[in-house]
Amino acid sequence: MSQPSPNIVIFNPDSYRGDVLGHMGNPGAVTPHLDAFVKGGAVSYANAFAQNPVCTPSRCSFMTGLYPHVHGHRSMKHMLRPHEPYLFSVLRRSGYHVWWGGKNDLVAVQKPEDYLAHCDVKFNPPPARGKRTLDGITAKDPKWNLFYRGVYDGEGEDWPHLDRDGGHVRGAVDFIARVPDTQPFCIYLPLTNPHPAYVVERDFYNRIDPDRLPPRLPSPARDHAALDHLRQVYDAGRLSEADWLEIRRVYYAMCCKIDDLFGQVVAALKSRGIYDNTLIVFFSDHGDFTGDYELPEKTHHSLQDCLLRVPLIVKPPAGVGVLPGVRQSLVELVDFCPTVYDFLGVDPGYDVQGKSLRASLAGDDRSNRSCVFAEVGSRAGEKAFINADVHGMAPDSFYSMQARASHEAHRAGSYAVTARSLDHKYIRRGYEAHHELYDLRQDPGELHNLHGQPAYAEVERAMANHLLEHFIQTSDVLPHDVDSRQV
Q1: In a 3-state reduction of DSSP, which class is residue 426?
Q2: Which helix (H) or strand (E) holds 62?
Q3: In this model, does residue 6 exceed pLDDT 70?
């Protein structure tokens, strides 16, 4: 008797840095459920990288298996269109019931019912019960400009899960408890946290020991002018080290809460008896500065590791070979789709550019990558890249300030690409000469730009050649269906 098609759970928090994991050796991370998940049979990739440090471009990449320069969705306002194949269209064609609980930033919809072209259920949780009270933070606090909003107190039977993330996870748990066994399902949980604003319930805040948090990275001496402009607009120089530590503590607490929510889903699968034959993948769309380089959140024109390195933790379904633990090999989020297609034994009907991780999960990393690649930013004069939504925001709101500080760079052309090996990282900008090269063995924090230094000329040429080969090899894809020349 053949093994039934595996169920799939995609647990996809937003802005979760790849280093905030206890099993990766971070003394400040409180992630007991994720740590137990790896110990119990999953693989966690220490060097997993997103293809863009911004929500929509990254999601369009990992849900198609295509690089941003191929699918073309490089801005926050350009999402997958109905004619574009991606994971959910393949799964539904393969007989899967797709349950979606969380944010979008993926597909173009005009009205709520449009989601039903992409999933069987687009879950909307009921309003949370209970009381939330924010502790004394106001716009006069210097941390306010850095998107810090403080700590919540509250009460009620739903405490401490009173937000929409908790509601979506509760919906997924209820679905797992009642879903019939007649059809394989895919649960997609694109949660909002730990995306800023930096705010969290006190229960999770109290679990984080600030004395155990790793030190933040300082600003580089030779940094990009657009990042210096952001610091000025945010007035980041007003913050003390204690202020930055508080921001980091809240962010770590938000990650702790995500870990708790993930544990609820795992417990529900085990309670129903379907954990073993469920493919579970935990990963984020991108990371977060969290005070590194005196910056909050992310940017639309830089490519630091803290923005690109993300968690990627995979538990294959029953019958797939796996050697659990932490892997150091380089992988990309575009590898997610081809891995799922490989496990299901389906032809997606279009070419994917990622690589299946099936062999790697079983312990064979020989075919893994020597470099990973990412890109960000706008072409010169690309008006559609500018997010006009910010014009309707209050001038002192975070995204309004961020937009004002970035518009000039985007209009001039902010497009940049990177090739990163285990030892070196090279960033090439398309419209200016501020290129970057880092020796990651000596400088893992990317603080000392070695671009143009004679001692690294050979390394720089090699990394530039990696970029050239990457763009040649991935410049486009042919459709699988062909057109007649005889009509």
Answers
A1: strand
A2: helix 55-62
A3: yes
The DSSP call for residue 312 is E
Let me know: does 299 contact 378? Beta carbons within 8 Å: no
Query: Which residues, in sequence order, are CB contacts of 225 under 8 Å at separation 6+?
Result: 409, 434
Cα 381 to Cα 119: distance, rounded to the nearest angstrom: 36
C-alpha torsion sign, points 140, 399, 303, 378: negative
Q: Would you say residue 426 lies in a domain?
A: no
Asked if 34 and 13 touch (Cβ cutoff 8 Å), the reply is no
Q: What does residue 8 show for φ and ψ, rounded to 5 degrees?
A: -135, 135
**What is the residue whose two structure tokens read 């949370």?**
128
Those residues with Cβ within 8 angstroms of residue 222's Cβ, 6 or more apart along the chain or in another chain: 449
Distance between CA atoms of 150 and 144, rounded to whole angstroms? Answer: 9
Q: Please indicate, yes or no, if residue 36 is contained in any of the structural domains.
A: yes
Longest dimension (CA), the chain: 73
Which one, of 284, 210, 215, 285, lies nearest residue 252 by Cα? 210
Number of domains in the chain: 1
Q: Omega into 160 within 30° of 0, i.e. cis?
A: yes
Domain range for 52 is 7-370
Whole-number Å distance between alpha carbons of 82 and 439? 43
Beta-carbon contacts of residue 50 (< 8 Å; ≥ 6 apart): 58, 61, 62, 284, 285, 286, 287, 307, 308, 309, 310, 332, 333, 374
Q: Which residue has 């702790």 as its token pair?
A: 256
CATH of the domain at 187: 3.40.720.10
pLDDT of 157 > 80? The answer is no
* Both structure tokens of 56: 């929509």
Strands 416-420, 372-376: pairing is antiparallel
Please list the residues that pair with 331 across neighbouring strands. Answer: 48
Q: How far apart are CA 68 and CA 59, in angstroms?
A: 10
Going by pLDDT thresholds of 50, 70 and 90, the confidence category of residue 160 is very low
In a domain, 156, yes or no: yes
Indicate the average pLDDT of the chain: 93
Q: Provide the β-strand partners of residue 198.
A: 148
Could you tell me the two tokens for 207?
A: 């679990």
Single-letter amino acid, residue 458: E
Predicted structure pTM score: 0.96
Asked whether residue 472 is domain-assigned, the answer is no
Phi, psi of 203 (to 5 degrees): -55, -40
